[in-house]
Write a structure and sequence with these properties.
The chain is of the alpha/beta class. The chain contains 12 helices and 20 strands. A 10-stranded mixed beta sheet has the order 9-7-5-2-10-1-11-15-19-20, sandwiched between helices. Helix 3 crosses helix 4. It is globular. Bound molecules: inosinic acid. The site of inosinic acid has 21 residues, from helix 4.
Length: about 425
């Protein structure tokens, strides 16, 4: 049974949680493959609203095994707090599997994320300050501590001592901060290890076996294509690979295991943090999107920047992810706009770019070339079939699919499961 990958096609916050929620009925495993608690999704459980950052949303379904795979960076304190909160609401977390190979976010990563951002001043990235970049940097530098180290006190202490010596020197001498205490960190982390031990597993082998025995596996990306370390708007990106290729590296599965790649795309575009955003609208339309779409970050509460749909980005996402279908979200938010604009190309220096320009400076300065489409006044939240959408909304959906060269398989017109238009 081949696996399905679900990715964001923009700068994150496309509404991937809703897509995962709908797919959950047809899945046996839901897997996080990259990122950490910089991500966030809001889930409704037991009549209450819950914000999850690390635990895959599959946790809410008793038939699903939620997996945090090798490519994720884990702040164990945050993970345990989330598990406690879920347990307090009567949700069983016993099925959660955590890869022994996943790297740990350590207290010095949080500290480094804060101080380096401050030092960058105006050039800062606007990170979530969850220590994600520094944790991945240490992984690449081969001085990271992994989940498996939590279960071997001697090794954990040895590695921590070596790393902390350097980190403390940097924190004190470069950033004028107080050094961190190895004993305190070891005490806390080894305690987390004791609690996490029953969940630690060889998740790559488990997923491989699951696919062999006909189980259905969903590999769920966090953030989005344009935040990808290699394929996004570098340096205004996160430090992992949200693209579909990252799902293979981050889980230890081979390319032949996957036959479906769903691109989740919002009916307009948002971005949190710094970086280029050619279709950003700081006027009335952007304000409407922000307010009607409740565009505030789940993790940091920051107001998201909003703008018109960008088909240049979508075409790019279709290419770098090998998308097989689109899941369009939040179409209902655009109701009430007399005209809706779709960016079909960028213009810069007398040249027109239909694909993402090869140089980052061009993306910063490019002017969007817009196609102007008729808007719709009607609310869409009650629509359940394509022909229940007003003609202008239907045309908008068809145009996005045509521009991407990928079919729009599903359209979401509200947060609940039922508010979905398929086919
Ligand atoms: P970091 O991932 O905390 O290092 O932040 C790097 C960039 O990615 C910043 O612009 C963040 O706002 C952005 N980012 C990280 N995670 C998310 C997410 O889940 N949604 C949207 N943006 C994100």
């Amino acid at each position: 049974m081949p696996a399905t990958i679900l990715v964001g096609t923009q700068w994150g916050d496309e509404g991937k949680g809703k897509a995962t929620d709908l797919l959950a009925d047809h899945m046996d495993h839901v897997v996080r493959y990259q990122g950490g608690n910089n991500a966030g999704h809001t889930v409704r459980a037991g009549g209450q609203t819950l914000k999850l950052h690390l635990v895959p949303s599959g946790i809410l379904y008793p038939h699903i095994t939620p997996v945090i795979a090798d490519g994720v960076v884990i702040d164990p304190k945050v993970l345990l707090e989330e598990m406690d909160e879920l347990a307090a609401r009567g949700i069983d977390t016993g099925r959660l599997l955590v890869s022994a190979n996943a790297h740990l976010v350590m207290p010095y990563h949080l500290e480094m994320d804060r101080v380096t951002e401050r030092y960058l001043g105006k050039a800062q990235l606007g990170t979530t300050k969850r220590g994600i970049g520094p944790a991945y940097a240490d992984k690449a530098a081969r001085i990271g501590l992994r989940v498996q180290d939590l279960t071997d006190e001697k090794i954990f202490r040895q590695k921590l001592e070596v790393v902390l010596k350097e980190k403390n020197a940097i924190l004190a001498k470069v950033y004028n901060r107080l050094p961190l205490d190895a004993e305190e960190i070891a005490g806390d982390y080894l305690g987390y290890g004791l609690r996490l031990a029953p969940h630690i597993a060889d998740t790559s082998a488990i997923l491989h076996q699951a696919l062999r025995s006909g189980r259905r596996v969903l590999l769920e990306g966090a953030q989005g294509t344009l935040l990808d370390l290699d394929h996004g708007t570098y340096p205004f990106v996160t430090s992992s690979n949200p693209v579909a290729g990252g799902a293979l590296v981050g889980t230890g599965l081979g390319p032949k295991e996957v036959d479906r790649v769903i691109g989740v795309t919002k009916a307009y575009v948002t971005r949190v943090g710094s970086g280029p955003f050619p279709t950003e609208d700081e006027g009335e339309a952007g304000t409407l999107m922000q307010e009607r779409g409740q565009e505030f970050g789940t993790t940091t509460g920051r107001r998201r920047r909003c703008g018109w749909f960008d088909a240049v980005l979508l075409r790019y996402a279709a290419r770098v992810n090998g998308l097989t279908e689109l899941f369009l979200t939040k179409l209902d938010v655009l109701s009430g706009l007399p005209r809706v604009k779709v960016c079909v190309a960028y213009r810069y220096g007398g040249q027109v770019f239909e694909d993402l320009p090869p140089h980052q400076s061009i993306i910063h300065r490019a002017e969007p070339v817009y196609e102007d489409l008729e808007g719709w006044g009607e609310e869409l939240t009650e629509a359940r079939a394509r022909d229940e959408l007003p003609p202008a909304a239907r045309k908008y959906v068809e145009r996005l699919g045509d521009l991407a060269g990928v079919p729009v398989a599903t359209v979401s017109v509200g947060p609940s499961r039922e508010q979905t238009v398929a086919g």
